[in-house]
Specification:
- The chain is mainly alpha-helical.
- The protein has 19 helices and 2 strands.
- The protein has a two-stranded antiparallel sheet with strand order 1-2.
- Helix 1 packs across helix 10.
- 54% of the residues are buried.
Length: 514
């Protein structure tokens, strides 16, 4: 059964890593790089809303049928994503994927908790960590391969980034059907559909504002109206959860434990930091450094090695000592320093230095992810392991959704002005002027668009950055410098968020074994 759980985890983890590596190519081909946040956040929002539902429904009806449903929805979403014709369609189909993904990880950890006592879980959680490590190694490489592939069997290469999920998912389905034998005692109570609806009403408007607010104006009627709807939705969610009691998506009694509440507060922050880095770092490697998708994927391997190494080291330590707070604090400290180090990256930064920072970031992520689940499950009251395990994924996805939307919004809100400023600084330099008077350079359509922007034409179009791959280096440099500057600001924000998580972790009261 452990093999079936690991395949389910691999399905979700591999997809996220492949999509992170291939997204720039997908967005360029669908003419929507600035819209890529929607494809990511639609997936995460669907996962956020469905994760606690899976946890609650599995407590009622059993883990097996819900796990089969989650795999099936994920495969349907993958098939639809492969057929998408626009970024908006891709976002909608990624939401279908997210509905399935919400159960893949939450139910896997809940099933593991059903199978094993706490003192034996760390060993298997280390194996689960290895699955994430494999996904982190294979995902960027496969994503780069698909992104760099012109076409295969009559379809654009990037579409295979979604189709690759089908054989893995089908094998996982067969294994779950044939191997799952755990008994289930049915517990009848209400299902909190109202909580899911109010949560959706609360999250979506606020995420739309985070993505569009800078363009609309933070005091515009549209922005204020959506903020009002979002706040009302979240208030409705809190009131619904209180009314539903133990039948709530997130039972209020779970939050009676300070350890549970504080652990999930840190969990949100970790989600913001990790998903934020995953959304921006591949763009730096591919756009600013000009790496191919495959090479950029390989550049993420050091981070993977760090995640795997940290997971393998801290798992036995926690099993032997029962201590995890120190590891969490260390992981957050490392991630904070690395985020601020990323904020120093420029077009000229050595790839060796970038690789060193990503390795250290991987170590921090590996420490945090491993011990967060241990802390949350340790705080769960009897009979609520499914809901508590689901909360681990739920709050991490909340952080990831907010972080991805916030960071990509900041990036593209700043990028155009930073690029324009870099062009103004560079325009009068001899190298730039030489390029402007070189017919071989100015005949390029990408160069013509950039030159037109210098003379009052439309600004740089960031929805399709593929022209940078063949733009003359003298003209491309200020564009890359502006993009790097915008990314630096994003990583400063990530560093501040991680520092806040570090402060929260210092107040975490560790629950040790007797």
């Amino acid at each position: 059964m452990a093999a079936a759980l690991m395949l389910g985890l691999l399905l979700g983890a591999l997809d996220q890593m492949i999509v992170a590596a291939v997204m720039r190519t997908v967005a360029d081909q669908l003419n929507g790089l600035t819209l890529q946040a929607w494809a990511t956040t639609a997936y995460l929002i669907a996962g956020v809303v469905s994760t606690p539902l899976y946890g609650r429904l599995s407590d009622i009806y059993g883990r097996k049928p819900l796990y089969l449903v989650s795999i099936s929805l994920f495969l349907l979403g993958s098939l639809l994503c492969a057929a998408a014709q626009s970024m908006y369609e891709l976002a909608a189909f990624r939401a279908v994927q997210g509905l399935g993904a919400g159960g893949l990880m939450a139910l896997a950890f809940a099933i593991l908790a059903d199978m094993l006592p706490p003192e034996r879980r760390s060993k298997y959680q280390a194996w689960f960590g290895a699955v994430f490590g494999i996904a982190s190694v294979a995902g960027p490489v496969l994503g780069g391969l698909f992104a760099g592939m012109g076409s295969f069997l009559g379809m654009a290469g990037w579409r295979w980034a979604f189709l690759v999920n089908l054989p893995i998912g089908l094998v996982a389905l067969v294994l779950v059907v044939t191997l799952y034998r755990l008994p289930h005692t049915r517990t009848d109570h209400r299902i909190d559909y109202g909580g899911a609806v109010t949560l959706l009403i609360g999250l979506v408007p606020l995420l739309v504002v985070a993505e569009q607010g800078s363009g609309w104006g933070w005091e515009s009627p549209r922005t204020l109206a959506l903020i009002g709807v979002g706040v009302a939705g979240l208030l409705g969610f809190v009131l619904t959860e209180r009314r539903m009691g133990d039948a709530a998506l997130l039972p209020p009694r779970l939050f009676a434990s300070p350890l549970f509440t504080m652990s999930n507060a840190v969990n949100v922050v970790v989600g913001m930091g990790v998903f934020g880095g995953l959304s921006v770092l591949p763009l730096y490697l591919q756009i600013v450094k000009g790496l191919s998708p495959t090479t950029a994927g390989l550049m993420l391997l050091p981070q993977t090695l760090g995640i795997v190494a940290a997971g393998r080291l801290c798992g036995p330590f926690v099993t032997r000592t029962g201590r995890y707070k120190g590891l969490l604090v260390l992981g957050l400290a490392v991630m904070t320093v690395c985020a601020l180090a990323f904020a120093r990256l420029t077009p000229g930064t050595s790839l060796w230095l970038t690789g060193l920072i990503t390795t250290a970031m991987g170590l921090g992520i590996g420490l945090c992810f491993q011990v967060m689940l241990i802390a949350i499950q340790a705080s769960a009251p009897a009979g609520a392991m499914g809901a508590a395990s689901a909360s681990y994924t739920f709050f991490r996805q909340i952080g990831g959704t907010a972080g991805t939307t916030l960071y990509l919004s900041i990036l593209f809100a700043l990028a155009e002005d930073r690029i324009a400023a870099a062009l103004r600084r560079t325009e009068s330099t001899p190298a730039f002027q030489s390029a402007l008077h070189d017919p071989a350079v100015t005949s390029d359509p990408g160069a013509q668009h950039l030159i037109a922007s210098l003379h009052g034409g439309p600004g740089i179009d960031l929805n399709d950055t593929s022209y940078l791959d063949h733009l003359d280096a003298r003209l491309a440099h200020p564009v890359l410098d502006g993009m790097a500057s915008a990314m630096n600001t994003v990583f400063v924000v990530v560093g501040c968020v991680m520092a806040a998580g570090l402060v929260l972790a210092l107040f975490l009261k560790e629950k040790t074994r007797d």
